[in-house]
């Protein structure tokens, strides 16, 4: 049986023929899939380098899983917002829809193995408490110790935030790799896993291995956690990594684990020597575990994965279709997108098991099926225009980590490159909602509670150069069938009511088509990302087509469209006012107004230039390049937010501080509390600020903003 191998497709040999497993596979660039060349009719299969791509198990799995092509297609037809859909097999192959061309790394290696991914491991097993026992006796020197350390690192890579772990090294005595964690288990989050890896790497082999003391220590910790309701409250296991055992340690198991065998024991025999293999195998098989022999570094990956199949058996036998949602992770293809907090994805996945009656008692896990969900799709359920000037929504996991938040900045600049921060997906709620000093909000959301609370907060804006003092109301609740909680944050005085007036479509259309009027292109007035015919449309163009009846298939937010139509009609007269001012401004008057602009809560913006574009001091202002000055999915414009916090009729003056402006003449933005604004040059602005500011004048060089 032949299948489309994602690495070999469209490859041609020296005779001009397609290579084996590499037949012609049509690929077309698709905007919905990050502008990658894909095939939306078929899926194809990726096989890691350490798995033979014509192994009978791989061929058999590729054959029966081909039926997923129909399912994937139907899913995408029913919900065009879906992104990647896939099936990860327990044999190692990965079926991905839509099909793509998979490129090896610089060394020609395909290192991606779906069985190592967080979504696969979480779906295939339940949460677990793990204690790893490492033999560091003298016989473990050299290659054996290298293999043992690699085995521990691989086990750690299979753990996630819902798991708990500790590592004990033993020889003549029991030695915790981190003395601070003595007698306990710690959450297997990214930081702790990396911490353990560094400590394990420093271990040296010496002395005589005494297994019984280490086993007793491990059983005491696990039993204590089980009795006190700590840890994962699910599976418990001991991982014994050694080059041999001189006895069966039956008395230890009789005292601490038999007859219930609540703790599984997995054993890993390291090295080529098998003299003591029987004892090591007996320990695993009599404690509901699994025995593996690892003689080379290449054997580690496949052998470690076996424990996952054992832990999945009870779930498979009971046919528990537990749906899991992963923590946030980065979609590499979207690094250059503007709204960095919206680059993140989550995966929804579930296990797939054999339904054959003759094998049901064996609990055979076939793999895991899943789909990626961009977090921006979840945040669309809390539209910006409904939350007011300073309002926002955020999501966090049951471990207290942020899934999506306007203040989550997962990327940093390394020279000209943009890279994800090492701990971008393990930022705690308390690090962004830092006013919650008693962790009342954090605790309630982690526990999945529903409720409200209020806090006085200091909100940094303009990258920390300025601060707004606000009173926020927090409304939080748990999202059913997920490990997530949602919080809506509204600022007192904003976001609690809407102002809607009735205007005719004809009147609104006349004003909205004007070239000086724009609407927030990151907001969703009309859904343009489902139908391929609509993807090239700006939001303004989509609204115009919807209102004019040109495109009856467009799905639009009628409430928001009604708001923006009303705003367009009400603000239209200001054009004549600005024109009258412009006529009185001398072209040679360099001390005059450069630009006037206006914004409304519905995301509408108008502007009028009083000088030529080439004479503007800050050419980025009011363009998509300057995210602070326009409406985005994350926030209202900075000038709008600052003006909203002042009494009606007052003015706010400020000089934008931009590194790339250098020593050029800086423009001064004068923002009225009615969100009607003008941009003037620095000389006029300082004069105005001196004459109007009721407080002591402070030179620009003496204060940061």
From TrEMBL:
Membrane topology: Single-pass type I membrane protein
Domain of life: Eukaryota
Domain called VWFA: residue spans: 129-311
Protein name from the UniProt record: VWFA domain-containing protein
Gene Ontology CC annotation, any one: voltage-gated calcium channel complex
CDD domains associated with the record: vWA_VGCC_like
Primary location group: membrane
Xref: PANTHER family: VOLTAGE-DEPENDENT CALCIUM CHANNEL SUBUNIT ALPHA-2/DELTA-RELATED, VOLTAGE-DEPENDENT CALCIUM CHANNEL SUBUNIT ALPHA-2_DELTA-4
GO MF term list: metal ion binding; voltage-gated calcium channel activity
Family the entry assigns: Belongs to the calcium channel subunit alpha-2/delta family.
Compartments reported by the entry: Membrane
